[in-house]
Design brief:
single chain, 136 residues, alpha+beta, Alpha-Beta Plaits, four-stranded antiparallel sheet, 4 helices, 40% helix
């Protein structure tokens, strides 16, 4: 196993409300379809995808964030999801063929999680408040 520092784009999706198995599967399908170099469910409700900048990562990360934001329509289970990304150098453990074995780590991961959490907080308004505001 080899440990290397490489530049990645980290895309984080943070959902405030728990997702059902079907909704989680729909989100995972979008992540897999974007062909990240590595992805995982970091914590319950937090999904992280890593795109190596050299190998088309910019385009793939833009497609993933756009695809997930389309899912965030009003009245959907993804309505309260925060999506954001960060760029930075991460420590990765790879095999001899360059396949990532464990979740890369570094400051960019923390930044992406923080930005996605802030995005979820900004968009999140409890349903009771929304109905009260609409009634006024």
């Amino acid at each position: 196993m080899l440990a290397k520092m490489k530049n990645y784009i980290v895309v984080c999706m943070h959902n405030k409300a728990p997702l059902s198995d079907l909704d989680a599967r729909r989100l995972k399908e979008r992540i897999v379809a974007s062909k990240p170099h590595y992805w995982e469910e970091y914590e319950p409700g937090i999904y992280i995808a890593f795109f190596l900048i050299k190998w088309g990562g910019r385009t793939k990360s833009i497609k993933l964030t756009a695809s997930v934001r389309v899912m965030k329509g009003p009245g959907t289970p993804f309505e309260d999801m925060g999506v954001d990304k960060a760029v930075g150098e991460l420590l990765t453990e790879t095999n001899w063929y360059g396949k990532i074995l464990t979740c890369p780590f570094g400051d960019a991961v923390n930044q992406a999680i923080k930005k996605a959490r802030e995005d979820a907080e900004r968009d999140f308004t409890p349903r009771e408040k929304k109905t009260e505001e609409e009634g006024k």
